[in-house]
Amino acid sequence: MGELDAMFGATYIGVVLSTFLYGILTLQTYIYWFKYDHDGAFDRWFVLILWAMDTIQSICICHMQYHYTITNYANPTALQFNNWSLNFEVGFTAIITFMVQAFFARRAWF
After folding, report:
1. What digits encode the pLDDT tens for the residues 15-24?
2. Model confidence pLDDT, tens digit, residues 1-56
3. Cα–Cα dist 92/90, whole Å
4. How far apart are CA 81 and CA 85, in angstroms?
5. Euclidean distance between the first and final Cα of the chain, in Å?
6. Domain segments of the chain: what residues?
7. Is the pLDDT of residue 58 over 70?
8. How many Å apart are CA 101 and CA 99, to the nearest integer?
9. CA distance 78 to 81
10. Which residues contact residue 72 at a Cβ distance below 8 angstroms, ignoring those fewer than 6 apart?
11. pTM, 2 dp
């Protein structure tokens, strides 16, 4: 079980850190939404959409952790197959990354 401990330990630390950062993101979104109400509608809705997408991503991460460590505890054959939430989370990460980088490129260009 040593190999599984190392793998799931790292995953658990990643989930805890991601959830902590999601809490900070939620606070920043809340402060932005009420403090910078003079920003354009595009910027405000963009922030809200990114927050919603990150919420879904955090749910997928927690579900993936639960699936591999609770539902399939001591079932090493479950590791042979990707969970739907893991696949969904990877795709969401790519979409969020693209959106943020496109937003920064737009800000730098204009």
Report:
1. 999 999 999 9
2. 567 777 788 889 999 999 999 999 999 999 999 999 999 999 999 999 999 999 99
3. 5
4. 12
5. 54
6. 2-109
7. yes
8. 6
9. 6
10. 78
11. 0.87
pLDDT of residue 17: 97
Question: What does the buried/exposed string (b/e) look like for 66-97 if buried means 16 or more CB atoms within 10 Å of the residue's CB?
Answer: eebeeeeeeeeeeeeeebebbebbeebeeebe
Which residue in this structure is represented by tokens 């920043």? 28
The percent of residues above 70 in pLDDT, for the chain, comes to 98
| pLDDT value of position 1 | 59
Asked if residues 53 and 95 have their Cβ atoms less than 8 Å apart, the reply is yes
Give the SS3 label for residue 5. helix
Q: How far apart are CA 34 and CA 19, in angstroms?
A: 23
Residue with the two structure tokens 């490129």? 105
Alpha-carbon distance 75 to 64, whole Å? Answer: 15
Alpha-carbon distance 33 to 44, whole Å?
A: 7
